[in-house]
Amino acid sequence: MSLDRKGFDFIRKLDELAGRKSEYLIKSEEPTDPKYGFYPFERPIDVYIQYGFIPLDKPPGPTSHEVVAWVKKILNVKKAGHGGTLEP
Question: What value, to the nearest 5°, has the Cα angle with vertex 80 and ends 78 and 85?
Answer without folding.
Answer: 160
